[in-house]
């Protein structure tokens, strides 16, 4: 199970500590909850989310009259899933059009794994029998276009590009015309992730979106923000900034395999109210999985 494998580091960190805690305390008391709180914060679950969880746990323990710490473990899993779902839209499926072109825009800062994610998704859709095209919309960073082409070759999909420094909106226009001409099903669009200049970034994304909207009514169908799980609370800050700049419909959390602090999924979900749609669990083409809260939470313990 890839999902479980990708969570190895987080699970080793988290469940070892929780098991140790349960063994040391045996009886549920205030100190037990305090230490549990500390473990959750260290796993990057996020302060607000941890406070909410601990409150819920205390109430549930009271309600069920739980005395032994060993009996708290299953309640922790239940509450974590509940907090993740929290009455919100948690669907990880993408808004794919049955007929006509689906346009997916990728945003996120450099190095988070945007190109890799586009490559992985291209592979996934291609495997499902869909015709996929890539748009090299990051015309700012040296090497970004080449890097996307490497993935295009690897997966066997065409990349629509112009030269470095060209107008990203013009690239999008070209890519949409190409997608229409080739009767493509999915167009995956890279963008430049310059968070240093929020106004420029906003203007660039707005212009790109305007071109897409004009050419394909209802598009872009998804705006996916790519975040690197290993950057912990920084990922949360990036997400907040991008949310201010553009409408984000979903999150792809990469490099979950590379961190022991996979609790960041819960923090992102709970504090931003944007669903995590995919998680990256490695560098290879098929190391991308649809996010599943139950699988994730239960994967932390077993
Ligand atoms: P970009 O600058 O956002 O386009 O980032 P890249 O796609 O070039 O990825 C940066 C680095 O992260 C590369 O070395 C990727 O192989 C690596 N990477 C991307 N996604 C994952 C993932 O899910 N797990 C791991 N372990 N590495 C990843």
Automatic annotation (TrEMBL):
E.C. no: 3.6.5.4
Keywords per UniProt: Cell membrane, Cytoplasm, GTP-binding, Hydrolase, Membrane, Nucleotide-binding, Receptor
Reaction(s) catalysed (UniProt annotation): GTP + H2O = GDP + phosphate + H(+)
UniProt-listed PROSITE patterns: SRP54
Pfam families: SRP54, SRP54_N
Domain of life: Bacteria
Gene3D superfamilies: P-loop containing nucleotide triphosphate hydrolases, Signal recognition particle SRP54, nucleotide-binding domain
Keyword Hydrolase: yes
Domain SRP54-type proteins GTP-binding: 275-288
Main location: membrane
Protein topology in the membrane: Peripheral membrane protein
Enzyme class: hydrolase
Protein's UniProt keywords contain Cell membrane: yes
Residues binding GTP, per UniProt: 108-115, 190-194, 254-257
Assembly and oligomerization: Part of the signal recognition particle protein translocation system, which is composed of SRP and FtsY.
Role noted for this protein: Involved in targeting and insertion of nascent membrane proteins into the cytoplasmic membrane. Acts as a receptor for the complex formed by the signal recognition particle (SRP) and the ribosome-nascent chain (RNC).
Family assignment from sequence similarity: Belongs to the GTP-binding SRP family. FtsY subfamily.
Protein name in the entry: Signal recognition particle receptor FtsY
Annotated source species: Heyndrickxia acidicola
Gene: ftsY
